[in-house]
Amino acid sequence: MAQLDEFKGPEADALPDTATLPAELAALYLCISPAQLADLRKPKRPEGRGGNGPPVIKPVEGGAAGSKDPVLYTLGTLREFAKAHPAPSAFDTALNSGLLGWVSAKLPFFAEREPRIKRGKRVLIGGAWDRADPLREKRFVALAKGRIRFTSLTCAEAAASLWADVASHAAFAEKGLALLKGETLAIEASLAATGQLAAAGPRD
C-alpha cells in the first residue's frame, strides 16, 4: 500500500484510496481528536459497546502485532467512515459555544512549513476541520508531501496569527469580531440596566 512519503510525483488534487495515514493524520482527516480516534479503536468501549471506528492496519516485520506497533489507516476506509458519520465541524461547535469556545477550543489549521521572517509568527493557510472545503483534499496532498504542516490553535490564536491571504484571514476573523461585538453589546446593555436600577433607588 502507498505510504505518505511515496507521493513525490506530479501534482494531484487528492491522495488515492490506497494511501495509508498514521493515526494522528487519520484523526485530522476525520475532524476528530487523536484521543477520540483511539477510543474508537478500543475493542470494548467504557459504556459496554464495541468500538466502531474505521479498520486499522498494524504493519509487522517478523512477529505478531503488539500494542506498540504503529497504527495505520487506508484513506479509502477513512473516506467511507466520514461519509457514514456526518457531523458538525469542530469549528461550528466552537462558534456555538460563544466566546468561551472561541478562546478555549483547540482546532487544527493548515500552515506554511516555515515562518516567512526570522522568529515570525506561523503563517496559516486555512482550517483543516471542514470536510466540505473544496481545497481540503489538495491540502492533504501538500501535507503528505511535506510542503505544509498543521498546527492546533484556538480560534482566538488563529485570528491573531498571520495568514497566507487576506481574504481567508478576514473571513475567519469576521466571525470572531461578531462574537466580540455580541459580548460587548450584552455588557453595555447590562451596564445601562444597572444604571436604570440605581436611578430608581432602593426598593422599600
Quick structural overview:
This protein has 204 residues and is of the alpha+beta class. The protein contains eight helices and six strands.
Features:
204 residues, 2 domains, two-stranded antiparallel sheet, 8 helices, elongated
Indicate the topology:
Elements: E1 20-22, H1 23-30, H2 34-41, E2 72-74, H3 75-84, H4 90-96, H5 99-104, E3 106-112, E4 123-127, H6 136-144, E5 148-154, H7 155-159, E6 162-163, H8 166-200
Parallel strand pairs: 4-6
Antiparallel strand pairs: 1-2, 3-4, 3-5
Structural class, judged by helices and strands?
Answer: alpha+beta
How many individual β-strands?
Answer: 6
Q: Into which percent range does the helicity of residues fall?
A: 40-55%
Termini gap: 80 Å
Count of DSSP-assigned helices:
8
Mean pLDDT: 80
Read across the widest sheet, the strand sequence of neighbours is 5-3-4-6
List the domain count as a whole number: 2
The poorly predicted ranges are: 5-11, 59-66
Radius of gyration, CA atoms, in whole angstroms: 22 Å
- The 3D shape can be described as elongated
What kind of sheet is the major sheet? 4 strands, mixed
In terms of DSSP E residues, the strand content is 5-15%
Secondary-structure element string: EHHEHHHEEHEHEH
